[in-house]
Protein backbone atom coordinates (compact mmCIF):
# COMPACT_ATOMS: atom_id res chain seq x y z
CA UNK A 1 0.00 0.00 0.00
CA UNK A 2 1.08 3.58 -0.65
CA UNK A 3 -0.42 7.05 -0.63
CA UNK A 4 -0.49 8.54 -4.16
CA UNK A 5 -1.46 11.98 -2.80
CA UNK A 6 1.92 13.67 -3.31
CA UNK A 7 2.37 12.18 -6.78
CA UNK A 8 -1.06 13.42 -7.83
CA UNK A 9 -0.51 16.90 -6.36
CA UNK A 10 2.83 17.21 -8.17
CA UNK A 11 1.38 16.01 -11.48
CA UNK A 12 -1.66 18.30 -11.29
CA UNK A 13 0.44 21.28 -10.18
CA UNK A 14 2.81 20.73 -13.06
CA UNK A 15 -0.08 20.68 -15.54
CA UNK A 16 -1.36 23.95 -14.07
CA UNK A 17 2.20 25.34 -14.36
CA UNK A 18 2.27 24.45 -18.05
CA UNK A 19 -1.03 26.27 -18.61
CA UNK A 20 -0.24 29.33 -16.49
CA UNK A 21 3.54 29.66 -16.89
CA UNK A 22 3.95 27.89 -20.23
CA UNK A 23 6.52 25.53 -18.74
CA UNK A 24 6.66 22.44 -16.57
CA UNK A 25 9.06 21.92 -13.69
CA UNK A 26 11.18 18.93 -12.86
CA UNK A 27 9.61 17.06 -9.94
CA UNK A 28 12.82 17.56 -7.94
CA UNK A 29 13.05 21.31 -8.72
CA UNK A 30 13.51 23.21 -5.43
CA UNK A 31 11.35 26.16 -6.53
CA UNK A 32 8.55 23.84 -7.61
CA UNK A 33 8.68 21.84 -4.36
CA UNK A 34 8.73 25.06 -2.32
CA UNK A 35 5.69 26.35 -4.21
CA UNK A 36 3.77 23.14 -3.51
CA UNK A 37 4.78 23.18 0.17
CA UNK A 38 3.62 26.78 0.56
CA UNK A 39 0.28 26.07 -1.11
CA UNK A 40 -0.22 22.92 0.96
CA UNK A 41 0.60 24.73 4.19
CA UNK A 42 -1.80 27.57 3.33
CA UNK A 43 -4.49 25.03 2.57
CA UNK A 44 -4.08 23.60 6.08
CA UNK A 45 -3.87 27.03 7.73
CA UNK A 46 -7.17 28.14 6.18
CA UNK A 47 -9.07 25.97 8.64
CA UNK A 48 -7.84 27.80 11.75
CA UNK A 49 -10.24 30.09 13.60
CA UNK A 50 -7.73 32.96 13.43
CA UNK A 51 -7.60 32.75 9.64
CA UNK A 52 -11.37 32.74 9.43
CA UNK A 53 -11.50 35.76 11.75
CA UNK A 54 -8.87 37.45 9.58
CA UNK A 55 -11.28 37.15 6.63
CA UNK A 56 -13.90 39.13 8.58
CA UNK A 57 -11.69 41.54 10.54
CA UNK A 58 -8.46 41.99 8.57
CA UNK A 59 -7.44 45.33 10.10
CA UNK A 60 -7.78 44.04 13.66
CA UNK A 61 -6.28 40.59 13.03
CA UNK A 62 -3.29 42.11 11.21
CA UNK A 63 -1.80 43.03 14.58
CA UNK A 64 -2.58 39.76 16.39
CA UNK A 65 -0.35 36.67 16.29
CA UNK A 66 -1.58 33.36 14.95
CA UNK A 67 -1.50 30.99 12.00
CA UNK A 68 -3.01 33.64 9.74
CA UNK A 69 0.30 35.52 9.92
CA UNK A 70 2.13 32.49 8.50
CA UNK A 71 -0.48 32.23 5.76
CA UNK A 72 0.07 35.89 4.84
CA UNK A 73 3.86 35.31 4.62
CA UNK A 74 3.35 32.19 2.49
CA UNK A 75 1.04 34.07 0.13
CA UNK A 76 3.72 36.77 -0.20
CA UNK A 77 6.30 34.15 -1.14
CA UNK A 78 3.96 32.66 -3.77
CA UNK A 79 3.39 36.19 -5.11
CA UNK A 80 7.17 36.68 -5.39
CA UNK A 81 7.47 33.39 -7.28
CA UNK A 82 4.71 34.43 -9.66
CA UNK A 83 6.02 37.97 -10.12
CA UNK A 84 9.48 36.65 -11.10
CA UNK A 85 7.88 34.65 -13.88
CA UNK A 86 5.67 37.60 -14.92
CA UNK A 87 8.76 39.83 -15.24
CA UNK A 88 10.47 37.19 -17.41
CA UNK A 89 7.34 36.97 -19.57
CA UNK A 90 7.17 40.76 -19.94
CA UNK A 91 10.75 40.78 -21.25
CA UNK A 92 10.10 38.07 -23.86
CA UNK A 93 6.46 38.83 -24.70
CA UNK A 94 5.37 38.43 -28.32
CA UNK A 95 1.83 39.88 -28.50
CA UNK A 96 1.08 37.96 -31.70
CA UNK A 97 1.89 34.57 -30.16
CA UNK A 98 0.80 34.11 -26.53
CA UNK A 99 2.51 31.11 -24.93
CA UNK A 100 0.33 30.74 -21.86
CA UNK A 101 -2.16 32.35 -19.49
CA UNK A 102 0.32 35.01 -18.35
CA UNK A 103 1.00 36.13 -21.93
CA UNK A 104 -2.73 36.33 -22.66
CA UNK A 105 -3.26 38.36 -19.48
CA UNK A 106 -0.34 40.67 -20.33
CA UNK A 107 -1.81 41.21 -23.82
CA UNK A 108 -5.14 42.17 -22.26
CA UNK A 109 -3.32 44.51 -19.84
CA UNK A 110 -1.77 46.25 -22.83
CA UNK A 111 -5.17 46.59 -24.54
CA UNK A 112 -6.69 48.06 -21.36
CA UNK A 113 -3.76 50.43 -20.72
CA UNK A 114 -5.79 53.62 -21.24
CA UNK A 115 -8.73 52.41 -19.15
CA UNK A 116 -8.40 53.72 -15.59
CA UNK A 117 -11.01 51.27 -14.31
CA UNK A 118 -9.39 48.16 -15.74
CA UNK A 119 -9.00 45.13 -13.50
CA UNK A 120 -6.13 43.83 -15.63
CA UNK A 121 -3.17 44.63 -13.38
CA UNK A 122 -0.06 42.71 -12.31
CA UNK A 123 -1.58 42.32 -8.84
CA UNK A 124 -4.75 40.81 -10.32
CA UNK A 125 -2.62 38.52 -12.48
CA UNK A 126 -0.71 37.32 -9.41
CA UNK A 127 -3.91 36.69 -7.42
CA UNK A 128 -5.61 34.94 -10.32
CA UNK A 129 -2.60 32.67 -10.73
CA UNK A 130 -2.73 31.84 -7.01
CA UNK A 131 -6.46 31.09 -7.31
CA UNK A 132 -5.83 28.74 -10.24
CA UNK A 133 -3.24 26.85 -8.22
CA UNK A 134 -5.29 26.64 -5.04
CA UNK A 135 -8.53 25.67 -6.74
CA UNK A 136 -7.08 23.46 -9.45
CA UNK A 137 -4.45 21.56 -7.51
CA UNK A 138 -6.56 20.67 -4.50
CA UNK A 139 -9.80 19.71 -6.18
CA UNK A 140 -8.29 17.84 -9.11
CA UNK A 141 -5.79 15.82 -7.07
CA UNK A 142 -8.42 14.89 -4.46
CA UNK A 143 -10.86 13.88 -7.20
CA UNK A 144 -8.20 11.68 -8.79
CA UNK A 145 -7.33 10.18 -5.39
CA UNK A 146 -10.99 9.32 -4.75
CA UNK A 147 -11.29 7.88 -8.25
CA UNK A 148 -8.33 5.57 -7.59
CA UNK A 149 -9.88 4.54 -4.28
CA UNK A 150 -13.18 3.67 -5.97
CA UNK A 151 -11.35 1.65 -8.63
CA UNK A 152 -9.50 -0.26 -5.90
CA UNK A 153 -12.65 -0.95 -3.95
CA UNK A 154 -14.71 -1.98 -7.00
CA UNK A 155 -12.26 -3.57 -9.48
CA UNK A 156 -15.15 -5.03 -11.47
CA UNK A 157 -15.91 -1.50 -12.76
CA UNK A 158 -12.77 -1.56 -14.90
Automatic annotation (TrEMBL):
<keyword id="KW-0560">Oxidoreductase</keyword>
<keyword id="KW-0479">Metal-binding</keyword>
<keyword id="KW-0349">Heme</keyword>
<dbReference type="GO" id="GO:0008392">
    <property type="term" value="F:arachidonate epoxygenase activity"/>
</dbReference>
<dbReference type="GO" id="GO:0016712">
    <property type="term" value="F:oxidoreductase activity, acting on paired donors, with incorporation or reduction of molecular oxygen, reduced flavin or flavoprotein as one donor, and incorporation of one atom of oxygen"/>
</dbReference>
<dbReference type="InterPro" id="IPR002401">
    <property type="entry name" value="Cyt_P450_E_grp-I"/>
</dbReference>
<dbReference type="GO" id="GO:0019373">
    <property type="term" value="P:epoxygenase P450 pathway"/>
</dbReference>
<dbReference type="GO" id="GO:0006805">
    <property type="term" value="P:xenobiotic metabolic process"/>
</dbReference>
<keyword id="KW-0256">Endoplasmic reticulum</keyword>
<keyword id="KW-0472">Membrane</keyword>
<dbReference type="InterPro" id="IPR001128">
    <property type="entry name" value="Cyt_P450"/>
</dbReference>
<comment type="similarity">
    <text>Belongs to the cytochrome P450 family.</text>
</comment>
<dbReference type="GO" id="GO:0020037">
    <property type="term" value="F:heme binding"/>
</dbReference>
<protein>
    <recommendedName>
        <fullName>unspecific monooxygenase</fullName>
        <ecNumber>1.14.14.1</ecNumber>
    </recommendedName>
</protein>
<dbReference type="InterPro" id="IPR036396">
    <property type="entry name" value="Cyt_P450_sf"/>
</dbReference>
<dbReference type="InterPro" id="IPR050182">
    <property type="entry name" value="Cytochrome_P450_fam2"/>
</dbReference>
<keyword id="KW-0408">Iron</keyword>
<keyword id="KW-0492">Microsome</keyword>
<keyword id="KW-0503">Monooxygenase</keyword>
<dbReference type="GO" id="GO:0005506">
    <property type="term" value="F:iron ion binding"/>
</dbReference>
<dbReference type="GO" id="GO:0005789">
    <property type="term" value="C:endoplasmic reticulum membrane"/>
</dbReference>
<dbReference type="Pfam" id="PF00067">
    <property type="entry name" value="p450"/>
</dbReference>
